[in-house]
């Protein structure tokens, strides 16, 4: 029975403590809201409209006048035309021949050569006819090799004899050796060695034949 007044007193103190904490929370929230509203920047105010002054109006008018005086006038619009809407009696400017005499002569020659009325043959496009037509000098050239490779054959010479004569000419002019040497590239060092060997062989052959002839001569004398 003695604990009831103590419990009532403690319950009243707890209620007052809860009310105090609630009041302090509300006051803190209100203070934070007040600080937020005061710290947020206010939206910028729009500048008041000011009518242009007389000086500005005169400057704009002077600038427009200077632009009109400097810039060239705008050309008048032209109508687009093509060869389809060209009048039949009026010639097309692109088809009118130029006044240059050289171009006129070339155009006339081209039209003459390509016209259907004049039936031309391939003979006029030959080199000789072209040179004669334009008075150009002709040059006689023989493009095939002649020395040691061409044998004139008459009517009484048969084919076998002609080939025999050709083979003799080729061997006399060393055509086969030239062809063999020109077939592959020869280094300068190898060429010097080959020429030295050929000279030595020629001297040895000449000396050997001279020695044999001298021996035969001495034997004929009775030695």
Automatic annotation (TrEMBL):
Segments of skewed composition (Pro residues): 41-50
MF terms (GO), sorted A to Z: structural constituent of ribosome
A Gene Ontology biological process term: mitochondrial translational initiation
GO CC terms in record: mitochondrial small ribosomal subunit
Ribonucleoprotein recorded as keyword: yes
PANTHER family per the UniProt record, alphabetical: 37S RIBOSOMAL PROTEIN MRP21, MITOCHONDRIAL (PTHR41237), SMALL RIBOSOMAL SUBUNIT PROTEIN BS21M (PTHR41237:SF1)
Stated name of the protein: Uncharacterized protein
Organism annotation: Podospora fimiseda
């Amino acid at each position: 029975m003695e604990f009831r007044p103590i419990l009532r007193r403690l319950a009243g103190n707890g209620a007052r403590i809860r009310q105090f904490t609630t009041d302090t929370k509300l006051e803190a929230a209100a203070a934070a809201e007040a600080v937020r509203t005061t710290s947020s920047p206010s939206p910028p105010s729009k500048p008041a409209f000011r009518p242009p002054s007389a000086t500005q109006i005169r400057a704009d008018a002077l600038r427009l006048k200077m632009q009109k005086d400097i810039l060239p006038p705008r050309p008048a619009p032209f109508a687009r035309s093509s060869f389809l809407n060209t009048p039949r009696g009026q010639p097309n400017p692109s088809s009118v021949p130029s006044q240059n005499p050289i171009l006129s002569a070339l155009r006339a020659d081209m039209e003459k050569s390509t016209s259907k009325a004049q039936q031309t043959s391939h003979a006029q496009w030959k080199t000789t006819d072209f040179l004669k037509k334009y008075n150009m000098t002709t040059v006689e050239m023989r493009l095939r090799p002649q020395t040691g490779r061409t044998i004139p054959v008459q009517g009484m010479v048969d084919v076998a004899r002609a080939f025999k004569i050709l083979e003799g000419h080729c061997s006399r002019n060393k055509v086969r050796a030239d062809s063999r040497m020109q077939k592959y590239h020869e280094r300068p060092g190898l060429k010097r060695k080959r020429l030295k060997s050929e000279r030595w062989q020629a001297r040895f052959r000449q000396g050997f034949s001279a020695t044999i002839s001298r021996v035969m001569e001495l034997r004929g004398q009775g030695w």
